[in-house]
């Protein structure tokens, strides 16, 4: 098996495979573990989930860490996790995958940037979804500097500049707040209304206020009431009202932005209409002049090393079954493409154990697991944002329920398909088998 990526997801999966004695290689294009925490987040970032909801279940963060650890602390934690569980020795750093192809013999051909090709029984894709930049397009041309939030590294990029931040998510509010402190001016352009929530409520981190077992409808009701009491009407800050229910999109957790708005250090703007030199015109007819525009406009879900169409994507959601599998293919796992309303540690601890179970279960089946789950009536996720409590319950149930139900469902499906059922499953993008070493 091959694990691609050594960020939090890749490390969590590698640990679970190690515990189940499942042989694997792991590759990472960067020179160290950490994923986004190593190469894709500005230096001054802190997590928005708390220490308690982010740490792995069996590897607590140091008690000296604050409730919202910094980027540097998160990176140190992930390095310590890899060392503690002996994961680093299996990671090949600076090893970039450029092509993964299914073969007709149900194995996987993997081509690396140096031209080497290897054959693996399976591939676990743990490359994350916060790396392929999504940039907006507006009429006209901006003559200043325009960057994506992923290219923002620290406050030195803001000093003395007139700054416009486009977007209303967590990164947008962090950069706008830093621009309020270091820039000449800071303005925030919003295309729609967002739910802005404080990082702490009643002295507790946002994600710890309500137990995981709280039904989603009750979470929405209570948090809406809390927002009304703690924040009030967003229009009093110059912000548009949210155009969706809480949790239909990820809420923005930022305790600084609303204060900067009230102090006049951040000026709200509507959506951009067009650019003209250093001038941005907005849809309400107003305009401003800027030196730097930071587009905190999110990311696209992308798998450039997989054949186009192998992983169907709808509304930036991977259409996978059982959280990671594709119909028609054995041992391809697309992991970590959703955004839970929680930290990664507890979910990865449960999810990694489930993935290891599924790898072993697939070895006992004739048909691809994704095909069987599809036949059982499972559906791909409809949203990239999931309720952590519901996800945790599904993961725990899946660990013991799927090994019981899937073999029975597979036998029924094999009878339905008749003789040589595996040959009746369409597998596009599969080149012929070759005599290569299988890992």
Plain-language structure description:
By secondary structure, the chain is an alpha/beta fold. The chain contains ten helices and 26 strands. The chain has a five-stranded parallel beta sheet, covered by helices on one side. A five-stranded parallel beta sheet has the order 9-20-10-11-16, covered by helices on one side. Strands 4-5-6 form a three-stranded antiparallel beta sheet, with no helix packed on it. Helix 1 packs across helix 8 (344-362) and helix 9 packs across helix 10 (388-417). The chain is globular, with a radius of gyration of 23 Å. Residues 434-439 have low confidence and may be disordered.
Please report the number of helical segments. Answer: 10
Unreliable runs: 434-439
Over all CA atoms, what is the radius of gyration?
23 Å
Structural class comes to: alpha/beta
Main beta-sheet strand count, sense and barrel state = 5 strands, parallel
Record field, number of beta strands: 26
What is the helix content?
25-40%
State the strand order across the main sheet: 3-2-1-7-24
The overall average pLDDT, rounded, is: 92
Looking at how many chains there are and whether they match, the oligomeric state comes to single chain
Characterize the overall form: globular
Termini gap: 6 Å
| β-strand amount | 15-25%
């Amino acid at each position: 098996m091959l694990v691609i990526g050594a960020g939090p997801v890749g490390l969590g999966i590698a640990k679970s495979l190690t515990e189940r004695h499942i042989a694997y290689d792991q590759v990472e294009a960067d020179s160290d573990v950490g994923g986004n925490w190593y190469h894709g987040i500005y230096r001054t970032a802190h997590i928005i989930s708390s220490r308690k909801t982010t740490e792995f279940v069996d590897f607590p963060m140091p008690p000296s860490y604050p409730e919202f650890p910094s980027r540097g602390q998160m990176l140190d934690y992930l390095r310590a996790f890899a060392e503690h569980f002996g994961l680093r020795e299996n990671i090949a750093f600076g090893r970039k995958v450029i092509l993964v192809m299914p073969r007709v013999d149900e194995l996987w051909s993997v081509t690396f940037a140096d031209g080497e090709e290897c054959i693996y029984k399976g591939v676990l894709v743990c490359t994350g979804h916060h790396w392929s930049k999504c940039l907006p397009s507006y009429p006209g041309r901006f003559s200043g500097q325009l960057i994506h939030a992923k290219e923002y590294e620290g406050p030195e990029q803001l000093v003395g500049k007139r700054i416009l931040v486009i977007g209303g998510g967590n990164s947008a509010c962090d950069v706008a707040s830093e621009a309020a402190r270091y820039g000449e001016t800071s303005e925030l352009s919003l295309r729609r209304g967002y739910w802005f929530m404080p990082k702490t409520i009643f002295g507790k981190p946002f994600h710890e206020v309500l137990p995981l077992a709280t039904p989603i409808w009750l979470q929405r009701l209570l948090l809406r009431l809390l927002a009304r009491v703690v924040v009030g009407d967003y229009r009093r800050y110059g912000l548009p009202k949210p155009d969706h229910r809480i949790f239909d999109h990820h809420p923005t957790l930022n305790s600084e932005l609303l204060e900067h708005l009230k102090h006049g250090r951040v000026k709200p703007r509507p959506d951009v209409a067009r650019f003209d030199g250093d001038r941005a015109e907005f849809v309400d007819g107003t305009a401003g002049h800027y030196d730097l525009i930071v587009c905190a406009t999110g990311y696209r879900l992308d798998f450039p090393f997989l054949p186009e169409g192998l992983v169907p994507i709808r509304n930036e959601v991977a259409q996978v079954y059982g959280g990671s599998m594709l119909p028609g293919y054995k041992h391809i796992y697309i992991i970590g493409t959703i955004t839970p309303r929680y930290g990664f540690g507890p979910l990865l601890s449960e999810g990694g154990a489930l993935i290891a179970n599924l790898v072993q279960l697939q070895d006992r089946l004739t048909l691809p697991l994704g095909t069987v789950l599809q036949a059982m009536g499972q559906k791909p996720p409809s949203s990239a944002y999931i309720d952590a409590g519901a996800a945790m319950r599904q993961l725990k149930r899946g660990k013991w329920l799927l090994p019981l139900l899937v073999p029975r469902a597979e036998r029924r499906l094999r009878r339905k398909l008749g003789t040589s059922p595996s040959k009746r499953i369409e597998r596009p993008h599969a080149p012929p088998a070759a005599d290569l070493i299988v890992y």
